[in-house]
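**User:**
My hope is that you can spare some time for a protein that puzzles me. This is the protein in question:
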Amino acid sequence: MSSPPGNPHAHASLAVMTDYSPALIPAACTLAQRGALDKDLAIAFGVSFPTIRAWKQQHPDFAAACRLSPEAADAAVERALFRLAAGHDREIEQVALKDGELIRTTVTEHVPPNDKAAIFWLRIRRPGRWAEPMVVRNTPSDLTPTE
């Protein structure tokens, strides 16, 4: 499957847009409320990541529509942390040169779970079972601070 020009991650079935239109604002707002980041907006609109950034700089109404609410931002981070903790599959594009022809193939790559992310997730979500034990140190009472 080939990608539209300007966005190697966009699907070929999406229409390629290069010009900004205020008609994009409602869709951008809806996507942002669902936790979409700039890279997600680029894929949805069939443009490059730098194009989204440029539209946001040039069109304040579009930039405002793309802002994540605190709840949506937290939800996006929560989803990303969960994916990191649990592991996930992602599609990547491999490029090879064969007989002078550029060949692109999409391959599914497994990203293994991250132990630190899993421990962090569990300590927050299940502190009774996963909280770090407290260390209590006895100090002699006759010690005086030095100056």
